[in-house]
Amino acid sequence: MRVEYDASADMAYIYLVDRIAPGEAVRQVPAEDNTAILDYDSDGRLLGIELFSARRRLHSDLMSGAERIDREPRPPTE
To answer: Which of 1, 25, 33, 37 is the right S-S partner for 50, CB 3.0 to 4.6 Å?
Structure first.
C-alpha cells in the first residue's frame, strides 16, 4: 500500500496495488457519503481510493508517511 497526498487540494490517493497502469482503473464509484472515489479494474478488484478532506480522515501516522505530490519540483543541480 502506498499513499500520495496533495496538501493544496487536501486529497489523498491510497494505492492498494503497487502500480495502476493507464486505463487499468475502468470503473470509478463514489462512496455513499461522497468522501471518496473507489477505483476498480475490469475484474471488479479494488485498485485504489481517492479520498477527499484527507487530513481530517486519515490517521496522522499514515499522513506523515505519505508521498507529497503538491510540491514544486526542484531544479536539477549541476
So the answer is: 37
* Residue pointed to by grid coordinates 473507489: 38
Any domain includes 55? yes
The structure's pTM equals 0.84
Burial (CB count <10 Å: 0-12, 13-18, 19+), residue 13: buried
Inform me whether the pLDDT recorded for 12 exceeds 60. yes
Q: Which residue has the cell 503538491?
A: 70
The domain containing residue 40 runs over which residues?
Answer: 1-66
**Domain annotation covers residue 24:** yes
Secondary structure class of 53 (helix, strand, coil): coil
What the block records as the C-alpha cell of 40 is 476498480
Domain total of the chain: 1
Q: Is residue 19 part of a domain?
A: yes
